[in-house]
Structures are given as C-alpha cells and as structure tokens.
Amino acid sequence: MSANKGLNIAQYVSKNNSKWNGETAGLTSLKTTTSKTHNDWNADTGATSHMTPYHHWLIDYKPYVVPIKLADNTIVYSAGVGSVVFNPIIEGKKCRPVQFTRVLHVPMLRHNLLSVLFLTRQRKFKVHIDADHMHFILDGDRLFVASINDDNSAFLNGSTVSHSETARISSTLPLNYELWHRRLAHVNHDDVKKLVAHNLVTGIKLDSRIAPDPICEPCLAGKMHANPFPPTGHISSKPLDLIHMDVHGPIPTQSHSGCRYYAIFVDDCTKFKITIAIRKKSDTFAAFKSFHLLRTSSRRGTE
To answer: Is the pTM higher than 0.70?
Structure first.
C-alpha cells in the first residue's frame, strides 16, 4: 500500500477485518508547530514510538514499514527505522549526548515526536513534570529536559547531533549485564561479571546489577545445529521395522561397571524403549544387538 496518500482508519479496519495493531501518534502530530524550529523534538504522551520525518538524522538505518494512525484517524506509513543522537541542554549547560533507539522514519509526519510511553514502558525512564518542564530520569540520572510552552506542548532542550558527532553517546538502554553481554559479542555472563569484578578492562559502566535474563535468543539460535524436525505423522506397522536411537556421553562420573556412555533405543511401532549403559561409543552396535535380542524375546513371551 502506498504511503503517499492517507487512508481513513475505518476503511483500513474494515478492509483487514481486525483490530488496530500498528503505531499511533498523538494530537501534536497534526498541530502547526509552536517550537522555534521544525528540528525540535516534541515530547508526546500519545505516540507509541519515536518518529521523525528526517532520513538524514538516522544512523543504523533499516527499511521498515508499519502503519501509523494519526489523531484524525488517517493512516501514514513509516519508511524505515534507526537511531538518532540528541545533544541535550540542562540549565543552560550542554550534557552528554543521548541516543534514541528505534526511531521510525515517517516522511509524511509534520514534527519530530519523542514517545514518552516508549521511554517509560520499554526503557524504564521516570518522567517528572513540574509547571515549566518535563524531566527524563534514568537510574537516578536526569538525561534530558523538555520545556513546556504556553500551548502546553513540551519540546526537548538541545539539538540533534550530526553523524560525525556521535562519539561518547549515552544509550537510553540500561547499562546492565545483559547489555554488556550483547555488546561484547554475546560472551557468557560469568565472564562479563569477572571483567567487572576484577577491573580487567576500562570503560565498562554498570547502572544496574540485576541478574540478566538467562534466555538469550541470538545465543540459542547460534548454538542450534539444525532446525527442529517436523513430525511426519508416520508410524511403523510392525515392531522392529524402525528404531530410533541416540548415544549420550561421556558423562562426568563413571559408573561402577566403568560405563561413561549410554544408548537409548525406541521402537517406532510399539514405543518400547530401553536405555543401555556402555563403556565406549564403539560399543553402540553391541548394545543395539542386545536391544534387538531383548525385544525379540519379549515378543515371543520368553522374557
């Protein structure tokens, strides 16, 4: 669907016969700007994601198309997604640059929208609002501030940084073990903790020592040798026609009989299964013959 023309939300929902599951932008997406320049960022409590019409601001840009519902129920579409670097000013002083992640490139948008909901829900920011300002706080540090004007619109104090000025960026992601695990090419968490505990490297800063999530999807995907095998729906009609087997080992502790491996055999027809301990992997065929003899004897009723 073309992004050059808005589509009424009622038509979109009727056509897709489903509830809205795209992004949304608040009323400020339709207002005539009350800021000094179109380059200002409006802190929007109605937007579900950060959005900008400026492609040249975005770093790590990737094509990404998603429908966005504006306040007048029209639909526009994003063209891509990336990150934007912002140079905040607090109480007249320039502060450390901040990187806004997952910023949608929306060419038809009028303003730059900073999603307050995304920062609080996804990035764990706390927002304090007083009479004249919105203060954005992460782990006790105030990273940037938005001034509230007479129209009750809030615009960030500062400016967007050019790509050549992206050194010393402060990410809006919490600096915890999980983030450093990803930044250090998915090294295991124990090694990350050792680097921090023994001061083996410089530059690693931790804002939180919360235990990392033990499940890392990229790590799991990288260690998979093959995709899961889909079920065939086929079952053998006769016992011993098809045997499933697997060998495991060596196990750390040796058994009393000197075994450090075991073989598992499953009859596809009867689901009869047995585990046989073996000393070496080369004993697998002998274990299979024992299984075959045991299964044959069981069928004859001599067991």
So the answer is: no
Of 182, 248, 258, 236, nearest to 213 by C-alpha is: 182
* One-letter amino acid for residue 2 of the chain: S
Task: Profile the chain (303 residues) by mean pLDDT over runs of 10 residues.
Answer: 38 45 66 58 92 89 91 89 93 91 91 93 94 94 94 92 54 73 84 83 74 80 75 83 90 90 91 90 91 76 46
Read off the DSSP letter of residue 203.
S
Local structure of 229: helix, strand or coil: coil
Which of 293, 245, 299 minimizes the C-alpha distance to 267? 245
Question: Is the alpha carbon torsion for 190, 196, 197, 202 positive or negative?
Answer: positive
- Separation between Cα atoms, residue 98 and residue 171, nearest integer Å: 6
Please provide the DSSP assignment of 128-139 as one string. EE-SSEEEEEET
Nearest-5° Cα angle at 64, 60 to 65: 155
Q: How far apart are CA 87 and CA 244, in angstroms?
A: 62
